[in-house]
Structures are given as C-alpha cells and as structure tokens.
Amino acid sequence: MPLTNSRAQPAPSPADTTVCVIGAGIVGVNCALALVKEGFRVTVVDRAPPGEGCSFGNAGILAEWSFVPIFGPDVLKSVPKYLLDPTGPLTIRWRHLPHILPWLLRMLGFASVAHQRRAAEAMHHLTMGCSEAYEALAAEAGAPELVRRERILQVYDSEADFKKAEADLAYRIRYGVKVEALDRKALSDLEPALGPDFRWAHGLLAGGRTTNPGRLTKVLAEAFVKRGGTLKRDEVRGLGRLADGGFRIATAGGYFEADRIVLAAGAFSHKLAAMLGERIPLGTERGYHAILADPGVQVNHAIGWKARAFYASPMEMGLRLAGTVELAGLDAAPDYARARVMADLVPRLLPGVKTEIETQWMGFRPTLPDSLPVLGPSAVTPGLFHAFGHQHVGLTCGPATGRIIARLMKGETPNLDLSPFRSDRF
Which top CATH class is 68-209+284-367? Predict the structure, then answer.
C-alpha cells in the first residue's frame, strides 16, 4: 500500500529541491554528480558502497562505437552453436528457463536488422563522446590516470569474422566512429605477445578505457560528496507517494523523504519501479570476470576476442578477462566455471600467459527486451525518473545519461528524442 503524508509544496528551484538517486553504480553516480552540479540537494542510497555492483567488474571499455544492439539476426542464428559449446560465449541455466522465458520471447521480437538500426539511431547519442566526458570528470576529481583515450583492439582468428566485422563497422563509421584495419605486422607492433592465429584486427579509435571501473565510480562518488551530495548506505524496502507529490523512501534503517527520485539501481530497478505501480520487463545478462594478477606477458591495449566475446583488459590490479553472457536470472548462485572458461581460452590469445586466477566475479547486466535503456520520466508517477537498463554499455552511457536526467529535472528539453527510451513502450 502506498505511503501517504503531507508536506509543504517544495519550491521549484534546484537549491530547494531534494532528489534521491537510488543506486550507486556508475549510472547513478553520474546522475547524482550532474544533478549536484546544477544545485540540487541530492542523496544517493544503495545497500552497497559506490561501484560495488555491476560497475565494479566490467571490462572498463569506453565503447563509443557500441550503440548497435548485440542481439540481432546474426547472434540469433548462432545461438544453437553457442549453447552446444561449453566454452561458448552464451550459456543458459535450463532450470531457470521457465522464469526467464517470457523475457526471452520478447527479445526474439526485436531480433531484426530494422530494429538494430532504429536502436542505433537512438543509442549513439548516449555513447558518443563518453571518453572525452570521463577524461574531464576524472581530471576534475583528481584522478586523471583512471581514463585513457586510446585505441581498443578487436581481433579475429578467422578472415570470415574479420570481413563480417568490416561490414558492421562500416555502418558505425557513418556516425563518426573511427576505425583502422590492421594487418598482422601492424598488430604485432602494437601487441607483440598476441598469438599467431590472430592475423586480422581493427583498431577502434573512438573511445578508450578505464584502468579500474570500480575505483572510477568511487572517485566520482567522492567528487559528488565534495560538492555537497550525501551518500547513504542502506537498502530501499519501500517507496510511497506523499500528498504533495513528493516521496517517502523506506529503508532498512528508517525513512526519509525527497521531492524527486532517480531510479538507477541496475538489474534490480524493476522491483523498485513496481513499488510505485510501474511494470517494466527488465531482465539480466550475467557477466563474469577473472583477474590474472601476474599474467607474465605484457598487454598494452584492451583486446577483444570477437568470436569468444570477451576482453583481455590491462588494469591496475592485473589482467582482467571479462565478458560472456549467462542467462539465469537474479537469484541463482554464480557459476565461476564461466570465469575459468576465459582463463582456459586466453593462452591462445596470449601464448605464455599465466592463467592462475587471483579473484573472480559475477555481475548483473540490466537488459530490456529491445536492448534499449529506460531513460526519462516515469509514465505513471510524476517526479520519478528512470535511468537503467543500459545492458552492456552502462559505463559508456553514464555521462550522457547523467546530463539528460539533470536537464529533465530542471524542466529543460534534452537535445535528443527520448521516445525510444520511454518506460511504457512495451
């Protein structure tokens, strides 16, 4: 039952408007930082410290080119092959299939080139320019070393995969993505440790990487606090409307109130939206990483093995192997054999690499059936704003998402069409 109460009508100015951002991942922190810069009184609440969820364990790629949904006709045709290969990039926990089947069936309805093109037209506004934005944010926060604007390598062990990628990248180039084709000599000059099977590659020049996505999120959260924001470590257990249109947030530690809410809780956001009467078909793609603290080989760039759908990304803590997709919902225990698969495959990519795993991790990528986030005002609850469902590109889309939320909160119109991201589009 919704909570009710009455309070004085809040003034419309940012300085007199309290905002609760639910979620301290990279998207929530970007939203909070953009809002506090505009003068709003902002509290971020999360049951975990900043950057400890999905933002902690990704490959750290600032993928400006990654605005075309991964799930399309080519991937759909490859699904049987992936599922039959225990080392493949996709796996399903079959006992969880009845629970995730409705979401999967909805996804099938969007597995078309036409939808990929429509989605790309919307998504490129969220991805392009992210590396420049993070470079500025990290510098402002006193940690410029965390962001590197440099080429990302996408490598292939078959010419057929290379040629297929050429056609795909040609489409992205229309949006301003810069790409260079690399032969074996050029590739060896960049990455001498790369295995001999990899004779084709693309250098993706628009974008870059962070050397520690979890620390980047924490550093930006610290910058938010220095600007007057509040971090509250607590679990949200209830959301209700107040008589004046504000909100009462029930947490494990008590209650507090806010004039507006930004919902940026990743894969758990739909459960919170449901507390305010909004049903959103959010699912999750589980991703894994393994840290090789002492890989024994020099890796100069983040390297994506296209056919195996994972990255070998050099980071502060060692070489991170990150990627793949497991479909098993939110409640199943991690299957760290998925991390071991990447460690077992990486010697082909980097001969001589030491594959002892120091740490391993699993996180939840929040995914809508059409591979687009929910971004903008709630369709049913005035004062509630959504910022979740970025799938594989939450890190990449963080700065643009934060700017959009801040403009909307000020009553301004963003310079892009938000209708593809509506919460009631399904």
Answer: alpha beta
